[in-house]
Structure formats: C-alpha cells, structure tokens
Amino acid sequence: MSTRIRSALLWLAPVLLASPLVAAALQTPSPSNVTLPALKFTAPDAARGAQLGASCAGCHGAGGISKDEAVPSLAGQVSSYTRQQLTAYKAKLLPNETMQNVAARLTDQDMADIAAHFSALVPGPAWKGADAAVRAQGAALYAKGDPARNLIACTVCHGAGGRGSDSLILPSIANLSPAYAEGKLAEYRETVPYAHPSPQAMHAAAQGLTDEELTALAGYLSSLK
Ligand code: HEC
Ligand code: HEC
C-alpha cells in the first residue's frame, strides 16, 4: 500500500466514526482526473531551503510570517503540505498565477528543502480584529462541531492547536489571517479542489456552515499562535 493511501486511511478512521455525512462525501469520486505528480527528493536540507526561501519574504513576510491579509504565512506550516501546494502550483492545478510562476522555477529538491525550512520556523503572533465573543463562537465550533447538524469538529483533522499533521498532509491553520481563512473556507464550501490525496475533506467539513460561522471560525484561527 502506498504511503499516501495509508495516510488517507489513517485520518479517515476518526472521520468515518465522527460523521456519516463526511463518510459519504469521501466516497464520492474526485471531480478531476488530473493527479498530483509525486516528488523525488533526498533528505531535505533546511539550510539550503532558507537560502532559496529568502525570495519569498517579499510577499510571505520576514521569517515566513505574513503581515498581508491576502497572503498566507508559511512559518510553522507542515512540510508535506507546503510541498503539496508548491507541486500543485507548478502543475497549474491551483490557480494563483504568481505562485505558478514561482513554483515553475523550483525543482523537486528545492521544494523539499524550502518546505523543511519553513516548517521549522515559529508561527507569528495573533492577528488583531475579531472580538472575543466571535472568537469564542469559532472556538466552540472548532472543538466540538455540531453533531445535530452533521458539522464535524475541525480539531479531528487539524488538531487542538490547529497545527495539522505532517504525516497525514493536514495543514497547520493556526495564525492564518482572518480574511485569508474566511476566503478559503467559503471556497471549500462551494467547490471541491483538484485530485490531491483528500480533496473531499474540506468540502465535506465546510458544508452546512453559515457565513456567520465562517467569520467566527476565521476569527478563531487567526488568534491561534
Ligand atoms: C509576489 C508575491 C509572492 C511571492 C514572491 C511568493 N508567494 Fe507564495 N503565495 C502568494 C499568494 C498571494 C498566495 C495565496 C494564493 C491564494 O490565495 O490562492 C501564496 C501561496 C503560497 C503557498 C500556499 C500556502 C497555503 O497555505 O495554501 C505556498 C506554499 C507558497 N505560497 C510558497 C511560496 C514560496 C516557497 C515562495 C518563494 C520561493 C513564494 N511562495 C513566493 C504570493 C507570493
Ligand atoms: C476530514 C479532515 C478535515 C476536517 C474535519 C477539517 N479540515 Fe480543514 N483541511 C483538511 C485538508 C486535507 C486540507 C487541505 C485541503 C486542500 O489543500 O485542498 C484542509 C485545509 C484547510 C484550510 C486551508 C489552509 C491553507 O493554508 O490554505 C483551512 C483554513 C481549514 N482547512 C480550516 C478548517 C476548519 C475551520 C475546519 C472545521 C470547520 C476544518 N478545516 C475541518 C482537512 C480537514
């Protein structure tokens, strides 16, 4: 069994237990038959990644901590997810043209080294903005979901602190800007992404969330350091 399939099954187990709706969604075939190319690389060199990653600071911020609401931070991101996103940009499976151009210049080894570098950096401080009551609503949904409405708790996949899982390719979502997080959640609610290892996961998780809940969740995520 490939590591990828094993990974998918590993995180599927708790999900299946948690929600029959999610289980059904996960069995839906992916909408795209374009699959993510596998990367070939040897042991990642974070020091080399730091040199290559210096050019990212202009947009993603010094130390990988973004101050621009439209740009995600890379500090503390799990390396498997950074590799996956860069591969997808290079293969033009993700739409952002700037990132497609950035990724086009990177080799497989470059991506692995860059990902190792950013994963070792400490995520930034909380974003200001959402008020305490809104964050508290987000925190409750994040931790418990809403079984009565088939809303699955985010913590099942992203972990209590939002730091994700490298081995399961689950992104760290701590400290995303409120605008970026809300935009992503709205996107996942409407669409299923390209055929990466778990394309249905976020579509299923975001189904049924109201606009108000997206704002609350985004406010909560932005406060996780
Ligand atoms: C000119 C600005 C710019 C530069 C330079 C840039 N990026 Fe980006 N990057 C972006 C934007 C904007 C996004 C968000 C795109 C979106 O919202 O879909 C992004 C997204 C990403 C993502 C996806 C993150 C996620 O959480 O989904 C990764 C990974 C990434 N960039 C890595 C890099 C790396 C590594 C470099 C340097 C080699 C780099 N970027 C250089 C603007 C930039
Ligand atoms: C079944 C597992 C699962 C659950 C439950 C889940 N997620 Fe996710 N999440 C993922 C996966 C896998 C990705 C990466 C998806 C992709 O790249 O298309 C992701 C991506 C994200 C992203 C984008 C991160 C980035 O840097 O671009 C955000 C934000 C997010 N999730 C928030 C949430 C919130 C909030 C909840 C709860 C409502 C939640 N997730 C529940 C698996 C899950």
From TrEMBL:
It is found in: Periplasm. Keywords: Electron transport, Heme, Iron, Metal-binding, Periplasm, Signal, Transport. Residues 44-225 form the Cytochrome c domain. Gene3D superfamilies: Cytochrome c-like domain. Residues 1-24 form the signal peptide. It holds the Pfam family Cytochrom_C. This is C-type cytochrome. It comes from Deinococcus oregonensis.
